[in-house]
Amino acid sequence: LKEHNARNLWHPMAHPGDSIANPPDIIVEGEGVEITDLDGKRTVDAVGGLWNVNLGYSCTPVKQAIAAQLDKLPYYSIFRGTSNDAVIELSQMLKDFFEPEGLSRAFFTSGGSDSVEIALRLARQYHKVRGEAGRVKYLSLKKGYHGTHTLGASVNGNANFRTQYEPLMPGCYHIPAPYTYRNPFNETDPERLAQLCLSALEDEIAFQGASTIAAFIMEPVLGAGGVIPPHESFMPGVREICSKHGILLIADEVITAFGRTGDWTGSRHWGVQPDLMCTAKAITNGYFPFGAVMVSDAVAEVFEKDSTGKAAIGSGYTYSGHPVGAAAAIACLKETERLQVKDNAAARGKQLYDGLLRLGEKYELIGDVRGGHGLMCALELVADRDTKAPIDKKSIGTLHNVTYEAGAMVRISGNNVILSPPLILSEAHVNTILNALDQGVAAVS
Ligand code: PMP
């Protein structure tokens, strides 16, 4: 297996040579919040799959629901009005779940990038149907991550995910993120920084012309960009600016929906109702590839009432509304609510963040500690606290390996260590993660 993994498998977000130089761990089993590798080593999965395995790896009701649906109807398309009973039930449950956000319609997809693509398309089309065909541009945040499809890559804030594929979609502009550790304003106060970023957004809208902009897309807490929670005034400020200018607000909640922030959604955490919301990941907890774009009544009605023919939908996936995915999502949602996982995310998130802050005091290498909003945390590692020069790649690789040997799988993204464990983990699991990280950081300090 190790030989084939290195030679025949091109890992996403990796150079084909990477796995030959540094063979990755091969995970063969998952149970609860723990994973076991090919060599029999068991660790706490502090990555939660890829921010998605909120309920852990042994969720019996989900496995049973999948098996039952496979027996009953393994697939039928929901194109152009055919349907299946599982997806209808799911859409009703999602309407109830997202009622506080005012999101009532679900457009089903096969994953996060698909959800982003659909949301961005719907936004343009919404304006077209309303006779504002000139609204074609998109705004987003500089540290934002919105998947790998061409529209998503165009709005991605991190240049590393864009430049290799340019020219991408024209008309995408990126606003400074409310990232206190590094920002163009040299502002360290979160509230003042939020105001500066909001002013930058207003300036960009004025420069582009509001009547040319379709949508602003943002993650309520920036995830892959390094877990960057904004000040509480930021997202409400964005909402206000978008409403004022007739710009749709798309919340990319592929990571944050279903409890990760300690609230059921990131938008709810900040008290905001977006016009569209992208979901995926924890909607099926990794048990099936699936996603949904949640749409407000106001947006959906524009499509429903259209008499121009411009609202014809040319978007959808073979696996949109897949009955097995829908059955998995129903079971996940029931478990998510039964266990009230958001509460454990808040409590264990606080424990994790407090422990990371203690590590931050102990090690010079830790330039910034981010978290405080459920179970998404990060350490930013620097070679020098004054210059904030990122730690070298070799050291961060060592840190990862030592932490793994000490009992926790963490995710490395640039010079960040990212933590997004299952929401069901216990106090003892959090301590295991913190102890393992302590050893990992010590090894390169
Ligand atoms: N949006 C966000 C906020 C994400 O974090 C991700 C994936 N990490 C995506 C979109 C893309 O999702 P997927 O990998 O399922 O296509």
CATH topology label of the largest domain: Aspartate Aminotransferase, domain 2
Q: Tell me how many strands there are.
A: 15
CATH class of the largest domain: Alpha Beta
Structural class: alpha/beta
| Beta fraction | 15-25%
CATH H-level superfamily title of the largest domain: Type I PLP-dependent aspartate aminotransferase-like (Major domain)
Strand line-up across the major sheet = 4-10-9-8-7-5-6
Roughly what percent helix? Answer: 25-40%
Write the H/E string, N to C.
Answer: HHEEEHHHEHEHEHEHEHEEHHHEEHEEEH
Low-confidence stretches: none
What is the overall shape?
globular
- The first-to-last residue Cα distance is 34 Å
Give the averaged pLDDT, no decimals: 95
Number of structural domains: 2
CATH architecture of the largest domain: 3-Layer(aba) Sandwich
Listed once per kind, the bound small molecules are:
4'-deoxy-4'-aminopyridoxal-5'-phosphate
Family: Belongs to the class-III pyridoxal-phosphate-dependent aminotransferase family.
EC number: 2.6.1.77
Enzyme class: transferase
InterPro entries: Aminotrans_3, Aminotrans_3_PPA_site, PyrdxlP-dep_Trfase, PyrdxlP-dep_Trfase_major, PyrdxlP-dep_Trfase_small
